[in-house]
Amino acid sequence: MRTQRKTLLGISLLMSGVLLLGGCGARVATAPSGDAPERFPVTLDNCERQRTFDRPPRKVVTNDIGITEIMFALGLEDRMAGYFLSDGQRNGVRSSPWSAKFERTPHLGEEIGMEGVRAAGADMVFAGWNYGFGETQRFTPERLEEAGIDSYVLSESCRSGVEDRRGIMPPLRALYTDIRNLGELFGVRERAERLVSEYESTIAQARERNAGRDSPSVFLYDSGRSEPVTSGNGGAADQIIRKAGGENVFHGLDDSWTTVSWETVLRADPDAVLINDYGGRSAAEKIEFLREHSAVSELDAVREGRFFTLPYASLVEGPRNASAVRELARFLEDVPADE
């Protein structure tokens, strides 16, 4: 028995030494960088609500192209269980700087829902109000929480507290907020700060192109025949237009994506039309519709063909926003601004 106790004591001391060595750095070899348990819990301010995460998410499900590209830009595709994306956004995938990552990451379906999220084994969902989350579909952060699944809400889509209106901060600040929050959550803070710095630099250079010039007015046409869908001041598109040196004719609307009337478009008499390349109709079809519209076709911008097209992924919150500002600024250099 004494021999056995000595043997057990020796094993115990040996294991203690291994554990001490692990505490001096061996843990790094067994855990991904930034996932050290001592970083948690992590509390983030998301849509003016404190969200606490007890562990780093490892099976994230995203919805919509811009949201998914945020994860890709941060190099977090290995933390994803997959993404939901409608067929109307497939063209955006083909033009995406991260198209190869889209191909390597599971496409879980067109429409996000509890069944698909559970089937993917998700431990967090990254989506937004009207970007997947909604009471009509009974798919909300609260319902996910009841199911034991964390959530993060796209900051551009945060509700303002007035009905279902969205937008609580400037849209580009929303992008930087999400990049920094996710950088903190996943332990990639340096990469997050580098991205924000790059975007800020790109936008600053673009603004210089049209500094001192009058701002051409821009009508963003997303979709709609009887009534057009456009962007108010809560959407990324509004700030993209303004940073590029233009003025969104519907900047006064306290919402992100919203419906207006053709009469208000006519009264605004925009200097240029920005086409959102998204949905079942191509950008060319949307332009043709405007050219053939009995009233809208009389606008100078339409008659003179002052159209510019950007993909949907550039006009919703996402890592393509900065390049969208740069491209639109180049176009607006040649657009006359009416007094």
Automatic annotation (TrEMBL):
State a single Pfam family of this protein: Peripla_BP_2
User: Where in the numbering of this chain does the Fe/B12 periplasmic-binding domain appear?
Assistant: 59-339
Q: Which Gene3D superfamilies match?
A: Nitrogenase molybdenum iron protein domain
Instruction: List the signal peptide residues.
Output: 1-31
InterPro entries xrefs: ABC_Transporter_SBP, ABC_transptr_periplasmic_BD
Indicate yes or no for the key word Signal. Answer: yes
Q: Which UniProt keywords apply?
A: Signal
Origin superkingdom: Bacteria
The record's CDD domains line, in alphabetical order, gives: TroA_a (cd01148)
Keyword match 4Fe-4S:
no
| Assigned protein family | Belongs to the bacterial solute-binding protein 8 family.
Q: What is this protein called?
A: Iron complex transport system substrate-binding protein
